[in-house]
């Protein structure tokens, strides 16, 4: 085992690093405590790679008892902890803290049980989202929430972010598909939230925990709900010569009383970005493309596809194609699913925003985003969960050009402010992390922020779990110019990190 050593200027002393490493080495097996720069470098960021921070130490516990031991050590030594799954998060939630410990769940990757009778699976937090569906497939079941990152992201990360996906419009987000979470608090206590049944007595702490971004406890086990695989699924691809008509069509489909299995929209920039890459047959002349899926038994799907086609035509669709077989359905979806990587083909860097708006305001918001492109001098592609009103503007920039990253950040902040203005919210599924922490000041009052801190303090008495993420202090809001503070008018004092 090497002793820690460094020559650069780290945010911690060598003595401190040695102290934490020695304590962790006493409770974790060989190779499960990383501290050399070449070993910790891969943990310096998540999917929001514009923000980076090398951690002091990375701990890789192999079981729940070791998670408890790591948390006990961190609490005793007052070392902040950042839980980490696969690091695919897009809001900096898993970005390390300079003088802290990253607790990775990479070695907690077992599927403990798949029960076709109760239609549930019990899994460790490091299990990949898609691996759950793969394991359940033999029983004709699957796990419905399907983030586009499902090949890599973990269920622990999904719980922490309350992740969504294409099929969440019909089947619900993570919070609707998780029955029970087992987690360890900063005090080293093992707590179970929820249960195997659909309802549990007492306050719904499971719902409080899901989406808490690693700030309340470390997930060690999850019971998920499984649903039967539909007998058949078909998708409509509809073209529109006007983004406004496409946006209105989304609202019209839902207003007709239809809940599609997926309802996604791509603007012209997006379809032109992905088509040469995936060759999904997208209409690259259309200003907007809608993908509307129906699943269920064949008769039900036939009827729903017919009704949706009628609504889309009445809303001004210029062309409609319906998938004729499973291969074609997957081809239609492949463009949507590959939109983020495809952005890398046309721009050196991109910034994926995530905000939610009422569906009926879609068209108006898309027009406003187009106006913002000129204001900030940057291009933006829109590809998103239209049925949920969950926008994902991809802002293109070149980090090597001075000032472009700052302009992209300002563009993103403007979009989030617009989401709040039209009655929406600053996040749909990617969480707040560090990326949107200043935008929290726009959406919430000082009283609401204080209520969030009160919940955090109730779980994390030591204020060590992913501190300084997701909830802004009032000082931060005031310094960022997002909240007006006048002497005597601020009711709540700032909250110290202790
Ligand atoms: C190409 C791409 C497409 C994406 N598409 C979608 C999408 O369609 N829908 C969507 O919702 N998201 C999407 N994401 C975002 C991301 O994949 C999700 O937020 C995902 O849930 C993160 O999981 P992870 O395992 O990578 O978590 P990480 O990034 O490692 O961590 C995310 C957060 O969870 C916390 N955390 C992780 N594990 C634990 C644990 N065991 N206990 C407590 N806290 C924990 C971390 O501290 C952090 O705050 C996408 C990302 C990419 C790169």
From TrEMBL:
The protein's matches in Gene3D superfamilies, at most eight in alphabetical order, are given as:
3.30.465.10, 3.30.70.2740, Vanillyl-alcohol Oxidase, Chain A, domain 4
**Signal peptide feature range:** none
Do you know which SUPFAM superfamilies this protein is assigned to? FAD-binding/transporter-associated domain-like, FAD-linked oxidases, C-terminal domain
Instruction: Keyword check for Phosphoprotein, yes or no.
Output: no
For this UniProt record, the keywords arranged alphabetically read as follows: FAD, Flavoprotein, Oxidoreductase
Domain (FAD-binding PCMH-type): residue spans on this chain? 51-229
Which cofactors are named for this entry?
FAD
The reply to whether Oxidoreductase figures as a keyword in the UniProt entry is yes
Write down the PROSITE patterns for this protein, in alphabetical order.
Answer: FAD_PCMH
**Which InterPro entries does the record match to this protein?**
FAD-bd_oxidored_4_C, FAD-bd_PCMH, FAD-bd_PCMH-like_sf, FAD-bd_PCMH_sub2, FAD-linked_Oxase-like_C, FAD-linked_OxidoTrans_Type4, Oxid_FAD_bind_N, Vanillyl_alc_oxidase_C-sub2
Q: Identify the Pfam families for this entry.
A: FAD-oxidase_C (PF02913), FAD_binding_4 (PF01565)
Protein name as it appears in the record: Glycolate oxidase
Gene name of the record: glcD
